[in-house]
Amino acid sequence: MKRILVDELVEGMDSLVLLRGWIHKIKSFGKFAFVFLRDKTGVVQLVMEEEEILSQLKLEMSVEVKGVPVKNEKAPGGIEIQVKEIEIIGKTYYDLLPFSINEKKVKATLETELDYRYISLRRPDRRAVFKVQEEIVAAFKQYFKGEGFHEIHTPKIIASGTEGGSEMFTVNYFDRRAFLAQSPQFYKQMMAGAGFESVFEVGHAYRAELHNTWRHLNEYVSLDIETAFIKDENDLMELETGFLKDLIQHLKETCGKELEMYGITLPEIKEIPKIPLAEAQRILLEEYDKKSPAGNIDAEGEILFSQYIQEEYKSDFVFLTKYPASKRPVYTMPDQQCEGATRSFDLIYKGLEITTGGQRIHDYEMLRDNMIRFQLNPEDFGFYLDSFRYGMPPHGGFAIGLERLTMKLLELENIRAATLLPRDMNRMIP
Ligand code: AMO
């Protein structure tokens, strides 16, 4: 007999079906009971009369059930199962569940939930986060494939850093020192130039940042793109806007139930405002008396500026443009029309940076000179710099932090809630 899933149950089946899942809830009335069976698609009410097996059932056991679906308007989903046979196929070995799976409230801290990730994910609302995340990745791949991009997979064990600064994990690579990739930056540029022209990658990125905050992870998933023969950074912002519009539509079509669980109504995206960083800093100072660090805005500034954009432009998103060269990595293309600025941008979504991107320097000599200006030794960038000797076209790209995007879409308060198994300064398990 073929197993059917809870969401495949429909009225009028009236014949024996086979279900498998976990015991979600038991409501006993002495001689009979309503037992709720949960699988990955939903919960269904079982009607059971046999006292002996009832006394053996415990929450979260896994069971196999044969029964007849019948209409019952009072049952969740309008259908209940008259049980003919039930077998325990996965026993439990616990005294007390660490928190509730079947109540609205979890009654545990996020840290406890993460300690028991393998159980917290049994909660439909927690699994919903990862359904949405799965669909974000699906939409990303689908959109960029549709735009003629090619999927690549680049190494995560690398010989030198890409993003500047010292936020790198070191690993022993036989008798040498290596690093975990902070991003696929150099490789995606290389591949755009190598003939793929347009590439995307979904992969892990590692940051040894000493920030243990609601928005930082030490390992995150980066949605990267890079594309050749662009005119300037505006092409990239248009691409990202196109993707986000498509994503909203895709999530509406595939994640209705999940969005509803979190009370989320996704807005249509029209145009995303583009504001130069210096202008944003001025607005923050004038409107909110908020000072910004040189060449950037901080976490509080991002929140306040998003409020401003929401009020003035009715947009959840804003591109901050023209970041100063001194604050951007060595590969960033200077903006000849704006002294000291680069052709780079960040995208802020509901008060949080979710993307950095920009046009890159594609000229070999210009890149080498910029390395010297940044007090870097061009020889340390051997293979990367060398790849620019052979007709590297104008190119650029961006990267979206998957967990940050998921978190903001679902209005979660902590990035860890949008991470399957987070790695932060205190957490390496499970
Ligand atoms: P950047 O370093 O800004 O740019 O990273 C891009 C995006 O990745 C996400 N992100 C993080 N998410 C969680 N925890 C972290 N510690 C963390 N660090 C970064 C953010 C951020 O916007 N190579 C460039 C991208 C490019 O220009 O193509 C880069 O990595 O959402």
Concise description?
With about 425 residues, the chain is of the alpha+beta class. It has helices spanning about 50-55, 110-115, 115-120, 125-145, 185-195, 235-255, 255-260, 275-290, 300-315, 365-375, 380-385, 400-410; strands spanning about 15-30, 35-40, 40-50, 60-70, 80-90, 150, 155-160, 170-175, 175-180, 200-205, 220-230, 275, 315-320, 345-350, 350-360, 395-400.
Structural description of this entry:
The chain is α+β, with helices and mostly antiparallel strands. It folds into two domains: 6-90, Nucleic acid-binding proteins (OB fold (Dihydrolipoamide Acetyltransferase, E2P)); 124-418, Bira Bifunctional Protein, Domain 2 (BirA Bifunctional Protein, domain 2, 2-Layer Sandwich), CATH 3.30.930.10. 30% of the residues lie in helices and 25% in strands. Helix 4 crosses helix 6 and helix 4 packs across helix 12. It is elongated and about 85 Å long. It starts with 16 loop residues before the first strand and ends in a 21-residue tail after the last helix. The protein binds aspartyl-adenosine-5'-monophosphate. Aspartyl-adenosine-5'-monophosphate (AMO) is lined by residues 163, 183, 185, 207, 209, 216-217, 220, 222, 224, 353-358, 397-401, 403-404.
